[in-house]
Structure prediction request, 379 residues.
Amino acid sequence: MRRFAIVLLVLAVPAAAQDDNETLRGHVRTYAKNHDLASKAAILKAGPQAIRVLYQERASLDFPAFDDISDLLYTLRFKSDPGAAAMLCRDHLAHTERVLSGGEQFTLDQLVDALTHADRAPDGASFKLEDEAVRYETPVFIDPLACASPETLEIVYPANYRSGKAYIELDRALAREGLDWAFRYGAILVSTPARLWPGAAPRKLTAAEQEHLKKLVADLDAADPETRTRASREIAGLGPEALPALQNLNGSEEARARAVEVVRRINALHGGCVYGLDCAMDQQKLEGDDQRAAQRVNDDTRPLTRADFTQERLDAVLSALGREAELRVEVSDVVADLKITLHANGLRLRDALMLITRTYGLDFTVQKGGVVVEPAAKK
Prediction:
């Protein structure tokens, strides 16, 4: 019981924030219904704080309303990052059209990689570029805490599927799995909306949803595996208000284990943003060798060329990254044996460090002229 109580506390949101979210929901629904320009302006003014509300509301919409909301999301994704690399990513996805064959089946990692690059396509798909001059190459990182096995997660397109712009296709593919994307740390980063974007966006369940939740919780103990899987996914989608029902589960040991997994998924879908833009090093007051080391991390734009690791120890990965960047990088003994996967060829050192530390709940500082990676301080 204590485990669930802690999760509920973490997800608590001030009443004022809930009121703001409800106002935003109203604007989103109005815009989706009749393209009201005042509602659109209010959504864009809210900035990235509106993204999680937009994502949640979009889930109930069909074409073309889904695509209309994706257009707003596309604008907001890049609003807080006007850098040249982010703008190149934005323009590439906006100028690339993907023609996908209905009835085809892809794994998630294949599809994301193909949709975000101008020169690659999975079997069964043909790609058309509106501007043949657009050539683009950037790393893609799929957050393992949001999607553990993208290489086995299959996505099947309906026989009558109508495809279009690359960013719309990316949105549709990821939304099926409760995922979203951002351009962060020089890479296209795939994770849950909650881990990518600021601000919680809770909503109260309707009476009908509360009744449906009771059936879903019972279905966690169903004999049919498809029924159990569907129930787990739907409960997680309902958000923090589903947690009390999971607390009181009296089913089999297997059902209780599934409930624990659903709680973890709710945290990932509705918890706090972890992929921020700053680190502990940015808060340090540095001088001498430490100041020079921090400048090296921040200013070195050389792309890493030997940063391809699969399930390797964290200390070995960081040591290798440091050698290439000609900077000592150490890791706390507490997490030295953590196994990570990182394909960061083409990223600079700071971006690779941010990607690793944000994903695994770590942080980094500069000490004695080198970088030290350790568990993030509790806030």
In short: The longest strand covers residues 308-313. Residues 1-15, 126-134 have pLDDT under 50 and may be disordered. DSSP finds 16 helices and twelve strands in the chain. The two ends are 24 Å apart (CA to CA).
